[in-house]
Amino acid sequence: MSNNPSHLLKQIITMSQSLTLPICPKPTPKPKPFLNPRLLLSPPEPAPPSVHTVLPGNGNHDRTLKNYSIALQRCVDKGSLLAGKAIHGRVYRNQVYPDSHLWDSFINMYVKCGSFLYARRLFDVMPRRDVVAWTALIAGSVREMGGKYGLFLFSDMRREGVCPNGFVLSAVLKACAACLDQRFTSQVHAEVIKLGFLCDLFVGSGLVDAYSKCGEVGLAKRVFFDMPDRNSVSLNALLNGYASLGDEREVLELFQVITESEVRLSKFTLSTVLKCCGSLGAMKEGRVVHGLAIKIGLELDMVLSSCLVDMYSKCGDSDSAYGIFERIRCPDVVLWTSMISCFDRGRRFWEACKLFMNMCSMGIMPNEFTLATVVSSALELGDLVFGKSVHGYILKQGFEKENSVANSLIMMYMSFGAVEDGCKAFDALDDQDTISWNALLSGFHDGAGDSKDGRKIFVKMLNRGFKPNKYTFISVLRLCTSLGAVDFGSQIHTHIVKNDIQRDKFVATALVDMYAKCNSLPSAALIFEKLNLRDVFAWTVIISGYTQTDRGEDALKCFRRMHREGIKPNEFTFASCLSACSSISSLETGRQIHSRAIKAGLSHDAFVESALVDMYTKCGCLEDAEVVFGISAWSRDLVLWNTMICGYSHHGYGEKSLATFQNLMDKGVKPDEVTFVGVLSACSHAGLIDDGWKHFNSLRDVYGITPTIAHHACMVDLLGRVGDLNHMEQFLTEMNIVPDALIWQIVLGACRVHGNIKLAERAADKLLELDPHMDSAYILLSNIYALKGRWHDVARVRRSMIHRGVKKEPGCSWIEVDGDVHVFVSKDGSHPRAHDIYHKLEELREKLDLAGYIPNAGHALLNVSDDEKRESLLYHSERLALAYGLICLKPNNPIQVFKNLRTCGDCHEAIKLISKIEERELIVRDVSRFHHFRNGSCSCQDYW
């Protein structure tokens, strides 16, 4: 029969015209005529109470009714409502009195041809509504009117006393599933048991589906396993129920049990299980399902293939995913998108972009998800040019106003620092959402755009009625961190409290970070302590906050608390803690953290290695720093090279520092500004004037680096150390940068060494202009006057300090013994072992006298007699700390002493002799550098 509806209508009308009505006596009582089709267009009148009876005893009439039923079924098969109505009209005009089967056929036709209203009106005038009619109407109501209406119909059916069959129960259970009515499902379940339909496969599957969709997966599971026969429909319903609740592990366990039975697996079952494997990252189980798909011949099915690609992608096996993709004939856009996303998730960004280009060359039109993924891959590739070409393609295809695509473009441009292009992409979007605003804000908190503009954007977002989410607040808090705007950050904190998201761990961590980096640690600590779940990120933020604000001891206390609470540190935690050890020169704690990093398998991380080298160099263990640096030969980044170069320089090994720089150049690593600070500092500490000028001039000429204030400070220090004060003044005059306080301090220090009072006075004036309360300016100038014996000028400087309320930082030294730090000041008698310390100093004094040591009274900047000056030199703080170390530490251990001021020249000479007399390695770190004393000589070669 033709598929043309009009032709079908003609055929059915012709067939109905050939039907002959039976000649039979007029029945008594007269049957009710069939409903006029025109009345279906308006609400039907109530049917009279007469009961319709089929004319008995005529075979022709029965055959006619049967033919009408067959014709109606053909209308159902073709989906032709028009032809069905024509038959209805023919039956009415010929005054055919239908039997119950023809009534049911008309109800079924109207329901399945999409005219539920006609079916209902016809149903209302049926003389006797049997279970078949009820079944058709209930099933149709679920499709057209929703589940609730189906439940009402079923209730009416039971009130009329019609006993349901399996088909009715299946239809009602679909209605229960559609409207998620668990209570009604339980009532139907009781009806099923009462009527003995529990063994019916369709009814059982309906129960499993209804319970699963209502969230009662436990009941669904019981029904499923109580069924004598199970099919893939009931299995799918049960598995989908557990999957919708997020219980993927139970799905896999059920699937393992079911595969041992004889239930036939469908592609929908395998798809559900594969999705769960992907969510769990269960590669092993996913491969088993893949094997089953191959076994039953479903591997190349489009739906299942997409699920396999997605599963392998989420499990991190993009090669297997691509192997499946390649074997599929004519993959659609969904499958292409799945494979591109797979490469993107597997960080194979170039392959994702290449696949996208292949897709376009094959004429497959991408969708918004494809384009959003490709833009993300372009971002991760760091290829702005390719990203712009993708943007051009998006404009050509008209996807620029799709939110997911536009948001990806905004994020890409903002991440590349192309703030203007990002703003244009944002403005081109008609329907911005919160994600769009968040993407726009992301470009203003890392220095790509003006951070102040970021604040304006946030205010504009609020004014336009958008409600910020936690990601918005995190971006704005990072913006406050970049600006150091703690006041604005406090206002954002208020908004966070009003929106009741202060308990979110990511928002709380961002608050801690903002307050810590804005030097408001009490607020940071208060928020941190209120966190219910402090994870490793929160701990790391508070630890790094303490470290960056020179509160190393507090940082290490937090690290110990973190360890007691059982939180495993990550590489950033270790790096921050090692930096804390560097700041307080706590070698023992640093070694313990190094040990923990090794146990955690993080000692070879680039951040940890750099922090380890920095810690060991700043704690005086240059040999250990060299060991860590040597082990990292295959993973060195520029930060690690810079740390080692600066470390050698700080310890006075200028030649080693320059050799390391040459090694860096030989490896093809491009140096940066920090590298040359270390190189120039090494030249300064070693007095390498020619090398210093060569490297300084190469900054701009060879490497294209604009010299910073730090580079100029190194050159001023170099010229000052070699005593070339004339060239130093000329260099200061010709500088393109205004000298800062550090440079004038260096000048003042050089004047102290070389006795240039005139330049010292000018440098001191410059320093005090910058900061009238800088104690070092007064002290250095006072010491210069004292060296020249100008005690009246010394007194004048001291009076000026008192008048301005400037206090001199007291000189002190400290030494770490068995994990405890012991602090000493000059002529200190407060230590518990002061008697032993002074006794040891007397022993050393006698040995030094025998070695020919004569104290240099010129280093005692006091207006007293020479004998008193020499006596005072014997009890400087570094000597007290050194004596305590000689008493307490084993002979094979080096002794490390730290001092907050510059070591005086006399102590330097004395400690050189002590290292030879005691046959010990002595390490002294003053405010400027490390001194390694061995066998009567110092690493600085007396040039410091």
TrEMBL record:
<keyword id="KW-0677">Repeat</keyword>
<dbReference type="Pfam" id="PF01535">
    <property type="entry name" value="PPR"/>
</dbReference>
<dbReference type="InterPro" id="IPR046848">
    <property type="entry name" value="E_motif"/>
</dbReference>
<dbReference type="GO" id="GO:0003723">
    <property type="term" value="F:RNA binding"/>
</dbReference>
<feature type="repeat" description="PPR">
    <location>
        <begin position="332"/>
        <end position="366"/>
    </location>
</feature>
<dbReference type="GO" id="GO:0009451">
    <property type="term" value="P:RNA modification"/>
</dbReference>
<dbReference type="InterPro" id="IPR002885">
    <property type="entry name" value="PPR_rpt"/>
</dbReference>
<protein>
    <submittedName>
        <fullName>Pentatricopeptide repeat-containing protein</fullName>
    </submittedName>
</protein>
<dbReference type="Pfam" id="PF14432">
    <property type="entry name" value="DYW_deaminase"/>
</dbReference>
<dbReference type="Pfam" id="PF20431">
    <property type="entry name" value="E_motif"/>
</dbReference>
<feature type="repeat" description="PPR">
    <location>
        <begin position="637"/>
        <end position="671"/>
    </location>
</feature>
<dbReference type="InterPro" id="IPR032867">
    <property type="entry name" value="DYW_dom"/>
</dbReference>
<feature type="repeat" description="PPR">
    <location>
        <begin position="535"/>
        <end position="569"/>
    </location>
</feature>
<dbReference type="InterPro" id="IPR011990">
    <property type="entry name" value="TPR-like_helical_dom_sf"/>
</dbReference>
<dbReference type="Pfam" id="PF13041">
    <property type="entry name" value="PPR_2"/>
</dbReference>
<feature type="repeat" description="PPR">
    <location>
        <begin position="433"/>
        <end position="468"/>
    </location>
</feature>
<feature type="repeat" description="PPR">
    <location>
        <begin position="99"/>
        <end position="133"/>
    </location>
</feature>
<dbReference type="InterPro" id="IPR046960">
    <property type="entry name" value="PPR_At4g14850-like_plant"/>
</dbReference>
<feature type="repeat" description="PPR">
    <location>
        <begin position="231"/>
        <end position="265"/>
    </location>
</feature>
<dbReference type="GO" id="GO:0008270">
    <property type="term" value="F:zinc ion binding"/>
</dbReference>
<feature type="domain" description="DYW">
    <location>
        <begin position="852"/>
        <end position="944"/>
    </location>
</feature>
